[in-house]
UniProtKB/TrEMBL annotation:
Annotated family: Belongs to the TrkH potassium transport family.
Pfam families for this protein: TrkH
Gene Ontology MF term list: metal ion binding; potassium:chloride symporter activity
Protein name: Trk-type K+ transport system, membrane component
Primary location recorded for the protein, binned into one broad class: membrane
A GO CC term assigned to this protein in UniProt: plasma membrane
Keyword Glycoprotein belongs to the record: no
Protein species of origin: Caminibacter mediatlanticus TB-2
Length: 484
């Protein structure tokens, strides 16, 4: 690795570090307002901001010119750095060990929403808003967020980073300059957050809870301020339906939201969005019907909680209103299907993504057609656009890697004497950035009982899932390190 690459990476990481610590002023100010003991957090902020500022000052004359290898390495390092940056204040404020703090921090930034805390309701307000802030920063991807900064320095470098971090199988540029794209994405992100916050406040949440849940909803994160999650407001249908709608919106490609602000509805008419909505409706109605038949709850209660649960799981948000693990095997099967789907490409959601399933099933249909008629030329189209062969291969490889990673983590946990349901659902919940699973990691449980080693492996699973495998796996390629 040459000097230029090292300087590129160090300066980029320092920019991210400054940005994150500026956002950490939100929980710091919250701690001051609520008169909590945050002396250690204040010192941490001063030291951290000073350190990153000194590095940026020393590298002020260095212009970042990101090449693909620099970008790939930067993206991988930045997620580890984020885990550490978030872990330190968690340790200072709640006296937990590094492994617990790192797990919680990675869960926050990757918008997974799995927690090690047993009694969330009694946590200091500083910690609660810190967790939600991690969600909100990580929601659109720290790299996408940074494009606005980096594009001022070098547009080419930013595009490379954007490609390394962006989710989905294709990238659609809606403006000639990536800086403007990043700003538009964040504009929509902020707008949705403010709208959700205002509605939650009007509907009965106090301001603190509304801010936390708006941050966690739009980022599809799932951290709550209550032990019961949204179940604390289970009888407030306005809050539940508002959250359901905003979870669904957050699981849609954000470029579709930008287009609609221009009066262009084409993004909402895409095959991916249509199937995404169909799947939510079908699975929600199925779960609602099962719950209604097997319980004494009213039909509206069953439908409300059915739609909330499927929307929460499919968008990988991870909020809960009730303990859905008690709904029976049929409902659990439908919820597991939702866990394996995920949201749209280009959204804040995790998981495999709807678009990949569309490509996979269309490819399967084309292959069957080819077997029946060998001389027929087949091609796969989505929204009247032909999908190149390399994209199809990429999708197949991605799904294979996803299932392989889930299998590996599941077998590892199973070998450590956890039951199959806990092992498999914990693996899917972490790799898919969902949060809760079933068994001992159900919606009313947490991940505190796992060993330190298991927490690190699950944390790595969250990072791999957020990076969508390839960016992480490239680090283990010999070719990557040649002529670096």
């Amino acid at each position: 690795m040459d000097r230029k690459s090292i300087k590129n990476i160090i300066k980029f990481l320092s920019l991210i570090g400054i940005f994150v610590n500026i956002f950490f002023l939100i929980p710091l100010i919250t701690g001051i307002i609520y008169e909590e003991n945050i002396k250690g957090f204040i010192y941490y902020e001063l030291i951290s901001i000073s350190l990153f500022s000194i590095i940026l000052f020393l590298l002020k004359n260095h212009k970042i010119k990101m090449h693909s290898k620099d970008a790939i390495l930067s993206v991988n390092i930045v997620w580890i750095m984020l885990g550490i940056l978030g872990a330190i204040p968690l340790m200072l404020l709640t006296n937990i060990n590094f492994y617990d703090a790192f797990f919680e921090s990675i869960s926050g930034f990757t918008t997974t929403g799995a927690t090690i805390y047993n009694n969330i309701s009694d946590l200091p307000k500083t910690i609660l808003i810190l967790r939600s802030t991690m969600h909100w920063i990580g929601g659109m991807g720290i790299i996408v967020l940074s494009t606005g900064l980096l594009s001022i320095i070098n547009p080419t470098g930013t595009l490379t980073l954007f490609k390394s971090e962006s989710t989905g199988i294709t990238i659609e540029k809606i403006t000639p300059k990536l800086k403007h794209t990043a700003l538009k994405l964040w504009g929509v992100y902020i707008l949705l957050t403010i709208l959700d916050l205002i509605l939650l406040k009007i509907e009965g949440m106090n301001l603190f809870d509304a801010i936390n849940h708006a941050f966690a909803t739009i980022s599809t994160g799932g951290f709550s301020t209550k032990n019961e999650s949204l179940g604390y407001w289970v009888n407030n249908y306005y809050i539940l339906w508002t959250t359901t709608i905003f979870m669904i919106l957050s699981g849609i490609n954000f470029i579709a939201h930008i287009k609609i602000l221009k009066g262009d509805f084409s993004g909402y008419k895409s095959e991916e969005v249509k199937w995404y909505i169909y799947l939510i409706i079908i699975l929600s109605l199925g779960v609602s019907l099962i719950h209604f038949i097997s319980s004494n709850d009213s039909l509206f209660f069953a439908i409300t909680n059915g739609f909330f649960t499927i929307s929460s799981i499919l968008t990988t948000t991870g909020f809960a209103t009730v303990d859905y693990s008690t709904w029976g095997q049929a409902a659990i099967s439908l919820i597991i299907i939702a866990m394996l789907i995920g949201g749209n490409a280009g959204s804040t959601a995790g998981g495999i993504k709807v678009i990949r399933y569309i490509v996979m099933f269309k490819n399967l249909k084309a292959q069957i057609k080819k077997i029946l008629s060998p001389y027929v030329i087949t091609s796969i189209k989505i929204d009247n656009k032909k999908i190149p062969e390399n994209i199809i291969n990429n999708v197949s490889a991605f799904i294979f890697l996803y299932l392989l990673t889930v299998t590996f983590i599941s077998l590892y946990l199973f070998a450590n004497n956890y039951d199959a349901l806990t092992s498999i659902s914990a693996a899917i919940a972490c790799v898919g950035n969902i949060g809760p699973g079933f068994g001992h990691v159900g919606p009313v449980d947490n991940f505190s009982f796992f060993s330190n080693t298991q927490k690190i492996i699950l944390s790595i699973g969250m990072i791999i899932g957020r990076l969508e495998f390839y960016t992480f796996l490239l680090l283990f390629s010999r070719d990557f390190w040649k002529k670096f």
